Amino acid sequence: MARKPAPTNAPLAATLRKVERSAGTLASASVARMEETLPWFRALPADQRSSVMLVAQAGIRSLVEWLRSGGTAAGTQEISDEVFAAAPRTLARAITLTQTVQLIKVTIDVAESEVQALAADGEEDALAMAILKFSREIAFSAARVYARAAETRGAWDTRLQALLVDALLRGDSSDVLASRAAALGWADAPPVSVVVGRSPGGDHTVVLHSLYRAARRARVEVIGGVHGDRIVVVMGGATDPLATATQLAGAFGDGPIVVGPAVPSLDQATESARAALAGFRAAPAWPAAPKPVAADDLLPERALAGDPEARRALRHDAYGSLSRAGGGLLETLDAFFGAGGVLESAARELYVHPNTVRYRLKRVTEVTGLSPLDGRHAFALRMAMTIGRLDPAT
Predict the structure, then answer these.
(1) Number of domains observed in the structure of the chain
(2) Before 292, cis peptide (omega within 30)?
(3) Phi then psi for 328, rounded to 5 degrees?
(4) What's the CATH code of the domain at 376?
(5) Are residues 180 and 282 in the same domain?
(6) Among candidates 113, 16, 94, 17, which has minimal Cα distance to 55?
């Protein structure tokens, strides 16, 4: 005995069959409308326009499945994100979310314009309402797809930035630095300097987001990475690195913030990074240091901590300059420091007039940029003289 066909209980059953038969025509009409109304769509390469056609066809098929499963009823099921899986990833990178919304709108407009032709008698209003609900679900699906893409891209960018900072700290070649910076869209705006400070803790993405928000307010380019309990930040375009670091200070945790010297480009930023890291390690020896503080202001502490670059700078720039200047400047400093900073006592020790001592101390400031009358500068000068005499041949 022949079996009778099962009754069709799906809503809009008659309409559904007509929509199924017209699926290809609707997709083609949608793409044709896109070419007519969207100038940017016409400018897409042929392969990307073909990918949009695949997405349109997948969308029409999804509408059919949605109608078949009872999507017009209350408690509508969420549209599957597989609608957008038909397109290659390159299309998501080429088309923005705003443009995707425009494509969806054109497709829905085409479907709505065909309601009278697609709907069975008496089902026109129901089909129009179903298309309206379906368009909402598709829009939410597109938003989810782009949100996940943004999260993935953000995680990848964070990883790339960490690799770039690692390359800087290791002193990798300029080609490595340039390729990784280019992948991040880094605009090599001079000067470039490196800032090191304590991380506030918590999720690295949140920490770096706070840093980037502060950088946008300061109008500078930054690349940052969290390394253990430290944040290492490369700043570009900061004409006054110390002042800019002050604007970024809120993104750092407690403790010192050390700013490396400015260099002309990212290729030379390793020098700034080394100075900033050395200063960060030595900063606890100067509890009253300003925040942020320049790495060059920590030369004495860095030298005591074993930083060879700080020793070289003190020996060459301070001690060497005094030696080359002559005029009894080194002897005057010895007497001045030996007298506990009492000018008259230093003059008696040298058998000269106190005004002569004053003149020589002024010359020391002119030659080195360090004033013997300032306690902090006096400390740096004494350290430079000690290092210079311990290693005079270098």
Answers:
(1) 3
(2) yes
(3) 70, 20
(4) 1.10.10.2840
(5) yes
(6) 94
**Distance between CA atoms of 218 and 205, rounded to whole angstroms?**
20
pLDDT at position 79: 53
Q: What is the CA radius of gyration of the chain?
A: 35
Note whether 19 and 146 are same-domain residues. yes
Which residues, including other chains, have CB under 8 Å from residue 222's CB and lie 6 or more apart? 211, 212, 215, 233, 234, 235, 236, 248
Residue 166 resides in a domain: no
Task: Report if residue 164 sits inside a domain.
Answer: no
Domain encompassing residue 348: 307-390
- Structural domain contains residue 248: yes
Q: Considering Cα of 193, then 194, then 200, then 203, what sign does the dihedral take?
A: positive
Tell me: cis bond preceding 284? Omega within 30 of 0 counts: no
pTM of the model: 0.62
Task: Return d(Cα 250, Cα 218) in angstroms, integer.
Answer: 12
Burial class (CB in 10 A: 0-12, 13-18, 19+), 185: exposed
Tokens describing residue 86: 């038909």
H-assigned helices in 83-219: 89-94, 97-113, 115-118, 124-170, 174-183, 204-218
Residue 160 within a domain: no
- The string of pLDDT tens digits covering residues 70-126 is 654 433 444 545 556 555 555 666 677 677 777 777 888 888 888 888 887 887 888
Gap between the Cα atoms of 380 and 300, Å rounded: 6
